[in-house]
TrEMBL record:
Residues 16-224 form the Nucleoside phosphorylase domain. InterPro entries: DeoD-type, Nucleoside_phosphorylase_CS, Nucleoside_phosphorylase_d, Nucleoside_phosphorylase_sf. It is an enzyme of class 2 (transferase). GO terms for cellular component: cytosol. It comes from Psychroflexus torquis (strain ATCC 700755 / CIP 106069 / ACAM 623). It catalyses: uridine + phosphate = alpha-D-ribose 1-phosphate + uracil. Keywords: Glycosyltransferase, Transferase. This is Uridine phosphorylase.
Length: 232
């Protein structure tokens, strides 16, 4: 048991899918896994372990934002021995050619958060995906004929910004979309020398104003999940 996860040792698999939304964790477990058991309900942040094609795999909600995912990633790695952490999240398109429903595989995560600048005394750490998981995800997507875009994403502390034009500079530097956790996950994984990857589905377009419904954010995104499940 850890402060925020009341699982017993051995109840969590070495490979875990991490959606921000705990109800998406429930949906993934119930839709894709066999023999599931719920190992965590602390703070409503549901966590499940089951099997996929005979392999043990877990799925855990992380909440929204870098501080929240950092807590779960830290405890999963240091208290439960998790080795492969795969975020499966929603994101907002900030580039014209990134469309609703697109799957984005995040090679790197830029951030407007001050977290890493605090951690590195003003230095700029570059949070990147682990090559192993990234390479496997690209091969899986190609094998399954799932189209995707791979590149840099922005992990922001804001969902509602004062000025939507804030994103233009990032987009001009080829950052594909905005979400709120990948940079935190990649940094914690690097610190502990384990593997992490964020796979995202575009749920909003900050270019066109399109938005998915709450239900779609909870229980769609099949292509992203199909890729993630093969990485264990
Ligand atoms: O769909 P999830 O995984 O929660 O990810 C995105 O959605 C939330 C905002 O609605 C933020 O957590 C953002 O990163
Ligand atoms: O952080 C996020 C996630 C989804 N959509 C957005 O616009 N922002």
């Amino acid at each position: 048991m850890s402060v925020h996860i009341n699982a017993k040792k051995g109840e969590i698999a070495e490979t875990i899918l991490l959606p921000g939304d705990p109800l998406r964790a429930k949906w993934i477990a119930e839709t894709y896994l066999e023999n599931i058991s719920c190992y965590n309900e602390v703070r409503g942040m549901l966590g499940y372990t089951g099997t996929y094609k005979g392999r043990k795999i877990s799925v855990q909600g992380t909440g929204m934002g870098i501080p929240s995912i950092s807590i779960y990633a830290h405890e999963l790695i240091s208290e439960f021995g998790v080795k492969n952490l795969i975020r499966v999240g929603s994101a907002g398109a900030i580039k014209q050619d990134v469309k609703m429903g697109d799957v984005i595989i995040a090679m790197a995560a830029s951030s407007s958060s001050s977290l890493n600048r605090n951690r590195f005394n003003g230095g700029d750490f570059a949070p990147t995906a682990s090559f192993n998981l990234f390479d496997k995800a690209i091969k899986t997507a190609r094998d399954q004929k799932i189209s995707f875009k791979a590149g840099n994403v922005l992990s922001s502390d804001f969902f509602y910004t004062d000025d939507p034009l804030d994103y233009e500079k990032w987009a001009a530097y080829n950052v594909l979309c905005v979400e709120m956790e990948a940079a935190g996950l990649y940094s914690i994984a690097a610190k502990h020398n384990v593997d992490a990857l964020a796979i995202l589905t575009i749920s909003d377009s900050l270019i066109t104003g399109e938005q998915s419904t709450a239900q779609e954010r909870e229980s769609t995104f099949n292509n992203m999940i199909k890729i993630a499940l093969e990485l264990g």
